[in-house]
Amino acid sequence: MLLGYDIGSSAIKAALLDPDTGNTVASARAPSDHEMSMDAPRPGWAEQPPARWWRHMQAATDALRSRPDADLQAVQAIGITYQMHGLVLVDENHEALRPAIIWADSRAVDIGREAFGALGTDWCLRHLLNSPGNFTAAKLAWVQRNEPDVYDRVHKAMLPGDYLALRLTGTVRTTPSGLSEGTLWDVQRQGLAVDRSTTSTSTRASGRLPSRPFPSRAPSPPPPPQPWACRAAFPWPTGRATSPTTRFR
């Protein structure tokens, strides 16, 4: 069995799939009867506490577990899709430092425009395949400029799906495609674009951010399973369902 999660801004959806037939065995969403709330403390802002996603992810899993045909102990791998362009900041204990700045937030538009001019159109389109725009790198720059007390405590800057994978496994990892959608991946060098792109958006100008604030890529092949990580973080039945979480790494 394969277990998939879709981390949206209105709901968390979960589905159990039979890989042999391609059929959906069971599915669930949380909240089940309304949309997940989105906070807008100021005009143009959009935030969600990462703990809200985690709580509804647990609820969706519990709903799956209650279905008669859903055998979660048969799960062999887990996949996560998620809302793009969000920013989750965690400290050294992997605790969220502030609500996530999500895709619908427009506070960093001017910072992205400034970075586009500083880096140059040609460099951005060749190396980032996009303008910095209002994507994750620009949102991180906004935090550096406007919330320096939070910025000083940043251990890792993460995307929404990476954060939930962290909660499942206890390990911080990401992917080139994830970094690319945040304008943090240099497709020419096939490496992080942080050294150049985020300097222009002032995220490293002060020198306060750790030199590698973004999660490293998942290694290949994956490390040996660590079932304890899932049991400690997620109310999962014992058995085979504990080891697939290492596929996130």
From TrEMBL:
One of its GO terms (molecular function) is kinase activity. It comes from Salinibacter ruber. GO terms for biological process: carbohydrate metabolic process. This is Sugar (Pentulose or hexulose) kinase. Residues 196-211 have a biased composition (Low complexity). Keywords: Kinase, Transferase. InterPro entries: ATPase_NBD, FGGY_Carb_Kinase, FGGY_N. It holds the Pfam family FGGY_N. Residues 23-45, 190-249 are annotated as: Disordered. Gene3D superfamilies: 3.30.420.40. Residues 1-189 form the Carbohydrate kinase FGGY N-terminal domain. Residues 240-249 have a biased composition (Polar residues). Residues 212-227 have a biased composition (Pro residues).
